[in-house]
Design goal:
The chain is an all-beta fold. The protein is built from no helices and eight strands.
């Protein structure tokens, strides 16, 4: 993780839909940014602040034009904590595996021009390994 080597988007809001390599029972999501010490400016105001995570049924519906999403959690990435932060998802109401995850960044820590995300990790169990594996992410 090096300064500037990030997924950057214009402004303080943005989104990305991640297609997972298999259907996954989701448990958590990890977001990473650089530290203040690693930043050339000494600030990390381009870090995401308010984040919402959705699962998407894209590509699984008969009606391809219809997009169905369910919110699994809203989180705040803190610039005062560790740069790698894990947020646990509320998947109890949806005991099923998903192929897509949408990360919606609703705000950042004050940079009006852009927001940066350095790493996103999706945690869970693959659908075909749910019963047989123990603790694999």
């Amino acid at each position: 993780v090096f300064p500037g080597n990030c997924w950057a988007f214009k402004g303080h809001q943005g989104q990305v839909v991640i297609r997972l390599p298999a259907r996954v029972y989701l448990t958590a999501i990890t977001v990473q940014h650089i530290t203040k010490d690693a930043s050339p400016s000494g600030t990390i105001i381009s870090a995401p602040k308010d984040i919402a995570v959705f699962v998407s049924l894209l590509g699984t519906s008969v009606d391809a034009d219809r997009e169905e999403e369910t919110l699994l959690g809203m989180f705040t990435y803190s610039v005062e904590k560790d740069p790698v932060q894990t947020f646990f998802l509320k998947n109890m109401l949806l005991p099923r595996a998903f192929s897509y995850v949408k990360l919606l960044v609703k705000s950042n820590w004050g940079n009006p021009w852009y927001t940066c995300i350095y790493r996103v990790k999706v945690h869970g169990k693959m659908e075909n390994q749910k019963a047989s594996s123990k603790g694999q992410d």
